[in-house]
Write a structure and sequence with these properties.
By secondary structure, this protein is mainly β. It folds into four domains: 35-253, Immunoglobulin-like (Sandwich); 266-354, Immunoglobulin-like (Sandwich); 357-443, Sandwich (Immunoglobulin-like), CATH 2.60.40; 444-736, 4-Layer Sandwich (Purple Acid Phosphatase, chain A, domain 2). The protein is built from eleven helices and 40 strands. The strands form eight sheets. Strands 3, 6, 7, 8, 9, 12, 13 and 14 form an eight-stranded antiparallel sheet that branches. Strands 1, 2, 4, 5, 10 and 11 form a six-stranded mixed sheet that branches. Helix 10 links the parallel strand 34 and strand 35. The protein is globular, with a radius of gyration of 28 Å.
């Protein structure tokens, strides 16, 4: 989960306060929102689901008479450790919710995110899920912290990935000495059926969660998640376990009301949807309730704008426009003008259309002193080939073996190379060559050779929100010898291969990213969102499918061992050894008891790491994984203290010099020095690089080595999108040497 805060606090366990108490709720009035209105088909979906009673009110405080419901522990269904209550009511135009949560120590309430998009879910937060269709196929979701910062997402409804929606909800936060309360008003017309392509039901489904991050210290306070209707699973989005809110539409929100509400807002109900794309164009569908014409315009960057106008057959009818003659691998901003007269509305940059390429890649993978691995993708039935050469020598060529029979990517190995030598290569598709399919690289020197070079590393690329990723151009300008992608290279949030492939291909068609990876040897490991759902771990069903897909998508030197599956691997670049660690496949759940049984890497992978480190003669040893050592208090090594102690002991007790740790995950860049007093050895650095294409900063990091010096150095730099250095730290080997 993204955030860029350190939570280093000492707090005490206090008894859960009896805040937010009220008298037992009275039975709802007959015919209102109660079990009497429950749709039989809805009951069949989830016989054990909570049935929620609500009131209807147009009073100044519509929640005053609403019955109170207490949340329960999400994993067990037992009473919540910290009292949290919910009230629900409907007004004429809004759904009202009041969530009141006790807090043992208000001074430890975590509410650090103050801007939408910066990761509310790293704080203590409330999540509200609303399914107006009653189908248990998806939900509108609000995440709100104690500052009132709100994130809005839609999950499901036939789409695998989460996507944003604009709820226009009003949020008010109030606090007392021992509790905090959120009042939320959600406009009913923001829960539009045309957003999800499904009608409202007479029985809605709903869930509310209170998520509390761990409090660290000698006497840590309880962490947990509490729910209106327990999902009995680590994830909240188990739609068929949501509570049911019956009797909605028959009483207040019938088709006549909906039609009147839509007419009042007019052109506000204008949608623009990209139906399909290819290499030089796409199909766009526009719909509006406003009478009059629709005008669609598109523009690439600051270039000239093109425009076409159409007249829908009737208000609400769809108009389809085909765009042609566009550039490959390019991002176009689409705008729409809808309606005429007073109801006319203009939506600038309403959505984006991103054209793709005939192939994906090439991605230059593992390069050693004698060979190089290149990954590329082409549709089935196409022939991919590569030619390569060094200056002054005859070209060699090779065909990608799997390209003709499979639409999946394939890897070709260029062999017979020489150490510390530059090469160029060209990919062809059915004999056709394009400049954007060409690359170059320099092989490393023989392992153990002293020298100077730069390694770049980053993580977190959400192509759904960042169709253009200019920070990759800045990173490539640093001229790194190799690149480490440390997780969340896509946000697939599933183990389904088709979904993972979809988003990986979209990411590789991002022009700036594609230009970087064709000439920088690129290595990758996953974190949660490209392994499975958020904060997923080794208990994830189907993780074997994620592993097989990842191996099809990258060209690392190896994956795990014959006995132990996973992504962990190692290789040398001159006088530096790199160890990619798999922090997901064998990981214990985040909420497991923090004892000796709780593992981040698993015993077999940790034993492999100890053995390889003991044998390493390199000056510096790089440990790289997706999870931070202490910067994340919700999903990192800081809640795996026994396993982290073992990691620190590699320096403190095994006396292995030159260890540096690299990580990602938290959507910012950070140079975190963990003092010898904590490691009980030498200082341990966690160099965190995250958010190159999923944060407002869009920074990255480099690590430049010089092992020719009497005291070799590793210099960490945080690179801003304009190429400037925000922070730099020179780390001499003498600082990483046991005393």
């Amino acid at each position: 989960m993204p955030s860029c805060r350190l939570l280093i606090a000492s707090v005490s366990i206090l008894a859960a306060l009896a805040a937010c108490r009220s008298q037992p709720p009275a039975a709802p009035a007959p015919g209102e929102y109660s079990g009497a209105n429950l749709d039989p088909s809805a009951r069949a979906l989830a016989p054990a689901a909570t049935v929620l009673a609500a009131t209807y009110s147009d009073e100044a405080d519509p929640l005053a008479a609403a019955p109170e419901v207490r949340l329960v522990d999400n994993a067990s269904g037992k009473p919540a450790a910290i009292g949290t209550s919910l009230r629900v009511a409907f007004g004429q135009r809004e759904l009202h919710l009041r969530v009141c949560s006790a807090e043992p120590r208000m001074d430890s309430l975590r509410a650090e995110v103050d801007l939408m998009g910066e990761g509310v879910w790293q704080d203590d937060y409330i999540e509200v899920l609303i399914d107006p269709t009653g189908t248990a196929r998806g939900a509108y979701s609000l995440y709100i912290n104690a500052r009132g910062v709100c994130e809005h997402l839609v999950h499901g409804y036939g789409t695998e990935s989460e996507r944003p929606w604009m709820s226009l909800s009003r949020v008010t936060v109030s606090k007392t000495a021992d509790a905090w309360t959120l009042d939320v008003a959600v406009p009913l017309d923001s829960l539009a059926s045309d957003e999800i392509g499904m009608p409202w039901s007479s029985t809605w489904r709903m869930n509310v969660f209170r998520s509390r991050v761990p409090r660290k210290g000698p006497a840590p306070e309880p962490a947990g998640s509490w729910a209106l209707s327990a999902t009995l699973a680590p994830t909240y989005r188990v739609f068929d376990r949501m509570a049911m809110l019956p009797g909605v539409r028959p009483h207040r929100y019938d088709a006549t009301w909906r039609a009147r509400a839509r007419a009042e807002v007019g052109a506000r109900y204008t949608t623009l949807r990209v139906v399909s794309v290819d290499t030089t164009g796409g199909v766009v569908e526009a719909t509006t309730e406003a009478p009059g014409p629709i005008a669609l315009s598109w523009r690439r960057g600051t270039g000239a704008e093109s425009r076409v106008e159409a007249q829908p057959s009737a208000p609400g009818a769809s108009t389809t426009v085909t765009l042609t003659g566009l550039d490959s691998r390019a991002v176009y901003d689409l705008s729409v003008d809808a309606g005429s007269g007073p109801g006319r509305a203009t939506f600038r940059n309403a959505t984006r259309l991103v054209t793709r390429d005939d192939i994906a890649g090439p991605l230059l993978g593992h390069v050693d002193e004698r060979s190089a691995r290149i990954w590329a993708y082409a549709p089935a039935g196409k022939t991919l080939a590569v030619t390569w050469a060094r200056d002054g020598l005859e070209e060699r060529s090779r065909t990608f073996a799997d390209a003709q029979s499979s639409p999946h990517g394939s890897i070709v190995v260029l062999d017979g190379l020489a150490p510390a030598t530059s090469y160029r290569y060209q990919i062809t598709l059915d004999g056709r060559a394009e400049l954007r399919w060409a690359g170059s690289f320099t092989t490393p020197p023989v392992p153990g050779t002293r020298g100077a070079f730069t390694l770049a590393f980053t993580s977190c690329m959400k192509v759904q929100d960042f169709a253009s990723q200019p920070a990759w151009t800045t990173l490539a300008a640093q001229r790194p010898s190799l690149l480490l992608v440390l997780g969340d290279s896509v946000y697939a949030n599933t183990v389904e291969p088709k979904v993972q492939w979809k988003w990986h291909l979209q990411q590789r068609w991002v022009a700036e990213f594609a230009d970087a990876i064709r000439s920088i040897p690129t290595y990758a490991v996953w974190d949660d969102h490209d392994f499975g759902p958020n904060n997923s771990d080794g208990t994830l069903p189907g993780k074997e499918r994620s592993l097989a897909t990842f191996q099809q998508l990258f060209a690392n030197p190896s994956y795990g061992t014959a006995e132990t599956p996973g992504l962990f691997t190692t290789w040398s670049w001159g006088d530096v050894d790199v160890f990619l660690l798999d922090g997901r496949y064998h990981r214990s759940p985040d909420d497991a008891p923090d004892d000796e049984a709780k593992k981040m890497l698993g015993d077999a992978q940790f034993a492999w790491l100890e053995e390889r480190l003991a044998a390493s003669k390199a000056t510096f040893k790089i440990l790289a994984s997706g999870s931070t050592l202490r910067a994340s208090s919700a999903d990192g090594w800081s809640i795996y203290t026994t396993e982290r102690r073992r990691l620190f002991d590699l320096a403190a007790k095994k006396r292995i010099p030159g260890l540096l740790y690299l990580s990602g995950d938290i959507h910012c860049c950070l140079i975190d020095r963990i003092e010898p007093e904590e490691t009980e050895g030498y200082a341990f650095y966690d160099l965190v690089s995250s958010g190159i294409a999923n944060s407002s900063a869009q920074e990255s990091m480099t690590l430049s080595f010089d092992t020719t010096l009497a005291d070799p150095t590793a210099t960490a730099r945080i690179i801003q999108p304009d190429g400037s250095v925000r922070e730099q730290r020179v780390i001499p080997l003498s600082e990483l040497t046991p005393r």
